[in-house]
Amino acid sequence: MTDITRRITEQILAVPKGRVSCYRDVALKAGLPNGARQTVRVLHSLSRKHDLPWHRIIRADGRIGLKTGEGKELQINLLLAEGVEVSPTGRVNMEKFKV
Q: Which residues have C-beta within 8 Å of that of residue 24, sequence separation ≥ 6?
């Protein structure tokens, strides 16, 4: 695992149950000011292998990044199970639930 990947992974793991963060903020906290896409890559490639709480990382505007039929429903259900409120349109109130 590269240093960048390790730093991103640490930030993802730091998001507590019942809270969310966004791709951009994970990257910023990992020291990568333009690393939102790198965060997505780490989530896509390492979530299962490292048991990352991938469902807690969403878009900066509070929307779920996944599409219907491609994991969006699962992500919403996982967030709801942790007490994160998700609107019928698939949006999380970032002011209330963001780390």
A: 36, 39, 60
Question: Looking up tokens 């996944």, which residue turns up?
Answer: 66
Provide the 3-class DSSP secondary structure of residue 86.
strand
Global confidence as pTM:
0.95
- pLDDT tens per residue, range 7-52: 999 999 999 999 999 999 999 999 999 999 999 999 999 999 999 9
Q: How far is CA 55 from the centre of its chain?
A: 5
DSSP output for 13-82: HTS-TT-BEEHHHHHHHTT-TT-HHHHHHHHHHHTTTTT--GGGEE-TTSB-SSPTTTTHHHHHHHHHHT
Task: Please answer whether residues 53 and 12 qualify as being in contact, where contact means their C-beta atoms are separated by less than 8 angstroms.
Answer: yes
User: Looking up tokens 């990382």, which residue turns up?
Assistant: 57
- Cα 89 from Cα 24, distance rounded (Å): 22
Q: Could you give the angle at the alpha carbon of 82 between the alpha carbons of 70 and 69, nearest 5°?
A: 10
